[in-house]
Amino acid sequence: MAPDGTGIFLSANDGHIYHALLGGGEGRRVTADDGFFHFLHGVSPDGGELAYVGIEAGNFTQPGRLLTLPAGGGPPSWFDTGDGHCDGPEYSPEGEWLWEH
After folding, report:
1. How many Å apart are CA 43 and CA 55, to the nearest integer?
2. Residue pLDDT, tens place only, 59-91
3. Does 41 map to a domain?
4. With contact defined as beta carbons under 8 Å apart, do 27 and 38 qualify?
5. Which residues in 1-101 belong to E strands, given as ranges?
6. What angle do CA 26, 21, 97 make, to 5 degrees?
7. Any domain includes 16
8. Which of 4, 44, 53, 63 is most open to solvent, judged by the fewest CB atoms within 10 Å of its CB?
9. Which residues contact 11 (CB under 8 A, 6 or more apart)?
10. pTM value?
11. Could you report the per-residue pLDDT of 6-19, keeping only the tens digit for each?
12. Which domain, by its residues, includes 68?
């Protein structure tokens, strides 16, 4: 859910994350064209940040990478998770921690 309660964040079939308004209308893309598919997993408790997995387009055997992004859009932050596959990042209830499995 968006921090203002007017919409939701979702992963779409085109590989991007969107903010869709609950009242209808066209969704706003929040991820850039960076050569990756973006799979949303978590929204921070304050609604200001999104946690997702990025996988290089066309290379789904590559380990996913953990990223965060300001909910309003902007440059992502990348986290080094080693060589293992990253999936399911979520925030702790207070938003102090981000974990993945």
Report:
1. 19
2. 877 778 899 999 888 899 988 777 777 788 899
3. yes
4. no
5. 7-11, 17-21, 28-29, 36-43, 49-56, 65-70, 77-79, 90-91, 98-99
6. 120
7. no
8. 4
9. 17, 38, 39, 40, 52
10. 0.86
11. 899 999 999 999 99
12. 33-99
